[in-house]
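We emphasize that the prediction below concerns an isolated chain of 115 residues; any contacts that depend on oligomerization or on bound cofactors are therefore not represented. The input was used exactly as deposited, without trimming of termini.
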Amino acid sequence: MAVSLGIERDEFYAMNPKLMMRYMAFYKERAKRKRDEMDNSCWLTGLYMTRALGTMFKHQYPEHPITFDSTENGEWQKPEKKASEGFAAFAAVFNMERQKKLQIEQKESEVRNDA
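Result of the prediction step, given as a token string:
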């Protein structure tokens, strides 16, 4: 295990367990940062591919590299906001359909009571 952390044999034998735990924590943090960088890189690759495919449908490919600070128009929108907007639209449609269904049921019950 010490070898995977980059610790030499002599250094390992001179260590105490507390120091070894610090090395392990640093190694885990470095591995997490590396995974996050890879994830961000893959996400950007997907974004560029989406934009490239969008050029077939009259969308323009970005002239400058895309950064995590801003979008092409200077505004960065968090994915949570887009998801919440989508859910709000879904909820509005669902509520309208439910309201129509309740009105139909109410009219049907009125017809039954009149008969």
